[in-house]
Amino acid sequence: MDQMDPDDLDGGTPDTHRPSDQDSSPANGAATRTVGKPDRHASLVRLLTELSAERDQRGEPALAFLGQGYRLLEQNSDGGTLGTQYLTMVEASPYGICVHQRGKVVFVNSATMRFVGARVSTEIIGMHITDLVDAGSQDALLARIGSLASPGSFSEPTEMTLRTLQGRSVTVESQAVLTTWEGKPAYQVIMRDLTTQKAAEAGLRFQAALVGHASDAIIATSPDGLVTSWNPAAEAVYGHELDQVIGVPVAEVVGAPMSPREVVAAGGVVQATHYSADGTALAVRVSAAEMFDGYVLLCADETAQRRAEAEFATVVETLDEGVLLVGPGGRIELANSAAHRIAGVPAGSLVGLESRTLRLHDEYGVPVPVDDLPSARVRRSGKVETGRVVQVRRRDGAHRWLSLTSGPLMAPGQSVPSVLTSFADITERRAISERLAYEATHDPLTRLANRTLALNHLRRTIADPARTTTVMFIDLDKFKIINDSLGHTVGDQVLRIVGDRLRAAAGPSDLVGRLGGDEFLVITTGYAEAAEVRALADHLQRRLAESLTVHGRELHINTSIGIVIAEPGDTRSADELLEDADLAMYQAKTFGPGRYAFYAPIMRKRVQDRFALEQDLRNAVAEGLVETVYQPVVDLRTGDMVAVKAKSCWDHPVRGPIDPAELAEIADDDDLLTVIGAEVLAKAACEISRWRADHGVHCNVNVSLSVRQLGDPTLLQVVQAILEDAGLVPQDLSLDVDETALKDAADAVDALRKTGVRVTAERFGAGYSSLAQLCRLDLNVIEIDRSFVADLGRSSDAEPIVAGIMAMAHAVDLVVVAEGVETARQLEVLHELGCDWAKGPLVAPPGPVKDLKSAYTHVVRRM
Known about the structure:
PAS-assoc_C; EAL_dom; PAS_fold; Beta-Lactamase; 24% strand; elongated; 6-stranded antiparallel beta sheet; alpha+beta
């Protein structure tokens, strides 16, 4: 039928005599009520009469309630008393009862008022019924009312949403009945509050969903242990479908003895091993609780967790690092084997100990306070700490260095975290690191500080504005002679002895170092006056000059010392101070062996001049300004020129002519000597070859070779190419090598001699000359150093030395040349000693090739 509005129903108008706020009706809070109008009472009686026929056929709450009212009528004939009793029952009912006529509310009981949030009935009486119904339920309400065709007909119980006076929603179950009110058609609605039921249903649905989606097996059983419920997780854990287990003893399903009653009696939680349908063993934690109709079991499959725990325990136990777990109370709860091994205690003895009983020390050996232990620090900060290094002192007296990593572990329900600490024994690694650090800062031969450590120490001392720093740069005089003549083994031992003596002679707070080779360093801050520094230098030189014996040889060592004093406020860096001390040392060498010198700014000026001179020489070589001059070598017996010594000559535009010896020294420092030497050799070979051909004179070409040139792997090929270009045979060339370089260049010398080239030992006597050395090296000529020739005729010691050198040379059939003959007396002594050849200013100065002569008879001894 068409939807209708209740206002269209024939119901008359509402009674104008409505209860006021002062009415004593139960709807307004009174326990009883006196009905003032018989027709209103009669309406209620008629309502009950019309519905009495339905009281036994339906079980709806509304009809049941009406049935109760009808039984009151059957048992009571007094209408007034009956009305009062019925109204009392209506007011006391938990069901909401509302009567509306022509769409207007004409009666409500207390329950209805409670449903819609009214305090008194007058708040509702007279309202349109749809004002109390949610918009979503109004259409269904009107449809139900429209379906009631005759008095006594009623609708099916239906859910409906009320709208309270406060705007909230209330879900009720309602049933409408078409009746009469005061003789006119009306609708009585009986409502049951579904709020509690809905909440219960929602709770049941939630519980069902929870059970259905739980990851743990949930099993319900009867009191005697038969399965009555089996959730999906149980199917997954045990491999049995629901229809396979219902009614089956739970012990049979889980594959192991299982009594829910015994689990509850044991405290409700047990650990058990169950078996799935395929026989797989399961580690299960069983929780049991008793219900009104049996038991519920929660079976948590912990197989993976137990396996992981076992694997973790195995991993922890096999770690080479120690692992400790300190509980919230400060006791050690877990310690692996490595922890016991590193701590040097029996297995298992750490567990249960208070962590504060562990004896830890920091990197300086200071005991670690209790509140600074790893567990205390982590609990205080709540953060992970890594890389902390401590020392543990074991019961056996050994000290072990440990690297710690600690972090908090907070278990559920724990207010204070546990602390997990892992530690590695880094004792060996630390020892290696310390050894490497020591070796990186110390000289491996003498164990003294090396350059790096010395400079770092010097930087710290000069940074102190209150201290005066003194740097002493010490060089051993003529140490190269010892090293070359006696061998590096002896030389190394000499260096060790010198280092030991320096360490003993210096102050306890002084730094003693070796910079390399035969260079040593002393840095001291104990002296503020130059006189004190001089006294220290004298003390060091006297101590180092004391004789020493190495491999049966007694040796004497002199030292040259360069001194720099850096007073507070000195702006020089450590490197500059070291450089200045080096300059002062070279200045001391110019004074002779065993001397010392204080740095002066003029020394730096000399170095700068030397550097400028090196640059000028390099430019001169590039521009071809370095010339070659020749100095005759004359036979003292005949006066014939037997050889020509080729030398480099350079006329500096400012300083004038540069002595060949000084030029060679400058060129060797700048590595130009190899270039110049090759040019001199090529030019001398060609020019002397032509001069010999022009004058019909046979003489050798002598050219000096430096150590650098001897180390050139192409030297042999270069020499052979030059001789071929000049038309000379190898025997026409004599290569002059400094005596001190012969030992290191023995292979190169041998290679040259095998080609037929002659070799002369220059400056013989300046090094450690010996007959053994003459025999060992394949030489042709030795050249006595000019320092010995210069003393002839004025020092009684010179003649025996020169005589000894000649005797050694002649003993092995070598020719002896005297270098630097300047005076007639020197020439006379050389004749007397039987010297073979000579060269020097007295014989003939160096000059161009055109000034050469075939003979210089003035040097022949007159009879």
